[in-house]
Recover the amino acids of this structure.
């Protein structure tokens, strides 16, 4: 696979036939729910999760107690059974947790879909709730260390002693190499945050609603970790998002237009670590995103040219931009040029991205806010709607075991 | 170059069965990498099984030349993403060693603004406590 990746080729004939994938077109995202996104929630995560899940059930038109499956993150801050107790769930038949941090943002969708198409559960709730702004910030130096000590992290021992403790720093290392190898400029990178901030101006739920920036503002913003400036960084957020996954047959009986899951995948190929992905032949790319993308296209039977709108996990601008290369929306090393001026990634462009403002300008709910924006695009109810959007890609990542889904009407 | 703020502990490595040999060597001011005896491939970080030949008996510690080049780096210039035990600015370099593996570390005697991709560097060691040693990279002639 390494040879295929380095040449950015893919051999379809070695893979099992698409009909071996039982998720394709059989599961759908129905109800979506969220709390207010803020910088200070003054509530705990369990409290917010309950609100978002109730909202998602109401939106789907099911009773909360119809939920019989729970899909969680490995880094949630409360015990999953307590959540079931709060919601009064009496028949939870399926539950699981998915690893990979933000890389799992759509991996959870895949697991939930697998559960409903195999009959392990009828209605699986997928949720994420966090106080990343007012609570213990794992995106910050001391916070991350404390946070991740509970996880399986011996490999951080090769980095933390050097004051190398934050996701932004880890990304800066491969980002700098990528810029060096392909001559990507800071001016080019700036267009991603600028376009996302424009998108947020149409979304009253966005943290940065009412606070536009220009490209000049971007260029003049302070450097956080070279090469990343202030506006390259995601917006730490308090809030919760939830959605309900069920089968397409059941979804058709419910009140919303279903967002049908055409494909779902999560991958961790070639010397994968949690963000410190430095012992690969090349660190100026995201092999996990490439592999996940190839799987999505193969299963869904579509290509990048068929995607009407993309919601790409961008905890920092370069993480979103580089996905455009790995998912085939532009050539290798061409993403800087591709986003210059912003027109290619605005609504009406070749691939409109992060239409709600994304992780940089709407909210950072670990990518779950991207999933529900993807659902809104398919329903036609986004505040920044891509006209007649029929197929939407959503991703989790980057630099961790990365996941993605393709949704359709 | 790295200087510390007093009173904040520097985080230590996590030592387990697989990397004990690596950190024991560092305490003796030596850098070693893990190599498979059978397929002669170096691996970092250390692990209990060779991912190529799947042997669990063939991994051995091989001394490093200590030399490499800066493959990429970041400079921490604001406290927002830095670890508070470190005085600003400080560099973290990703060094590609002559053995082919890459490791991160701080620099020694190199001002942050002078670090560049492709810079030839070599390893040096600093004892931070009787039981705690870290490696750093300093400039070397090409």
């Amino acid at each position: 696979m390494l040879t295929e990746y380095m040449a950015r080729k893919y051999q379809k004939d070695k893979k099992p036939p698409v009909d071996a994938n039982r998720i394709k077109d059989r599961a759908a995202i129905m109800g979506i729910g969220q709390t207010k996104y803020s910088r200070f929630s003054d509530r705990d995560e369990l409290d917010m999760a309950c609100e978002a899940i109730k909202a998602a059930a109401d939106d789907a038109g099911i009773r909360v107690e119809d939920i019989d499956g729970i899909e969680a993150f490995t880094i949630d801050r409360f015990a999953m059974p307590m959540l079931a107790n709060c919601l009064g769930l009496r028949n939870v038949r399926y539950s699981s947790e998915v690893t990979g941090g933000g890389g799992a943002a759509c991996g959870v969708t895949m697991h939930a879909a697998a559960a409903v198409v195999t009959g392990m559960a009828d209605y699986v709730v997928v949720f994420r709730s966090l106080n990343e702004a007012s609570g213990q910030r794992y995106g910050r130096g001391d916070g991350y260390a404390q946070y991740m000590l509970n996880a399986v992290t011996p490999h951080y021992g090769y980095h933390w002693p050097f004051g190398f403790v934050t996701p932004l720093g880890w990304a800066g290392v491969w980002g700098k190499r990528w810029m060096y190898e392909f001559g990507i400029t800071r001016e080019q990178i700036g267009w991603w945050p600028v376009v996302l901030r424009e998108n947020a101006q149409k979304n009253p739920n966005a943290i940065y609603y009412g606070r536009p920036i220009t490209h000049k503002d971007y260029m003049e913003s302070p450097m956080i970790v070279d090469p990343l400036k202030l506006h390259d960084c995601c917006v730490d957020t308090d809030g919760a998002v939830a959605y309900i996954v069920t089968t397409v047959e059941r979804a058709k009986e419910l009140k919303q237009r279903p967002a049908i899951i055409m494909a779902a995948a999560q991958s961790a190929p070639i010397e994968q670590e949690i963000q410190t992905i430095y012992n690969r032949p090349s660190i100026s790319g995201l092999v996990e995103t490439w592999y996940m993308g190839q799987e999505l296209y193969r299963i869904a039977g579509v290509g990048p040219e068929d995607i009407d709108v993309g919601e790409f996990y961008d905890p920092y601008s370069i993480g979103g931009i580089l996905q455009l290369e790995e998912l085939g929306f532009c050539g290798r090393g061409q993403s800087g040029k591709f986003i210059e001026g912003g027109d290619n990634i605005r609504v009406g462009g070749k691939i409109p991205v992060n239409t709600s403002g994304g992780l940089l300008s709407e909210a950072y709910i670990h990518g779950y806010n991207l999933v529900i924006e993807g659902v809104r695009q398919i329903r036609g109810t986004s505040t920044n709607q891509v006209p007649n959007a029929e197929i939407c890609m959503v991703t989790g990542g980057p630099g961790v075991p990365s996941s993605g889904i393709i949704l359709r009407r | 170059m790295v200087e510390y703020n007093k009173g904040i502990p520097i985080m230590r490595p996590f030592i387990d069965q697989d990397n004990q040999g690596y950190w024991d060597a560092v305490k003796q001011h030596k850098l070693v990498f893990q190599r498979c005896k059978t397929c002669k491939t170096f691996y970092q970080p250390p692990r209990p099984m060779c991912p190529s030949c799947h042997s669990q008996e063939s991994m051995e510690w091989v001394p490093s030349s200590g030399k490499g080049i800066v493959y990429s780096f970041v400079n921490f210039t604001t406290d927002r993403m830095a670890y508070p035990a470190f005085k600003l600015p400080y560099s973290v370099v990703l060094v590609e060693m002559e053995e082919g593996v890459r490791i991160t570390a701080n620099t020694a005697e190199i001002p942050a603004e002078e670090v560049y991709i492709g810079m030839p560097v070599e390893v040096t060691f600093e004892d931070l406590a009787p039981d705690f040693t870290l490696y750093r990279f300093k400039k070397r002639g090409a």
Residues 185 and 236 of chain A are 26 Å apart (CA to CA). Chain A touches chain B through 35 residues (CB under 8 Å). The longest helix of chain A spans residues 45-60.
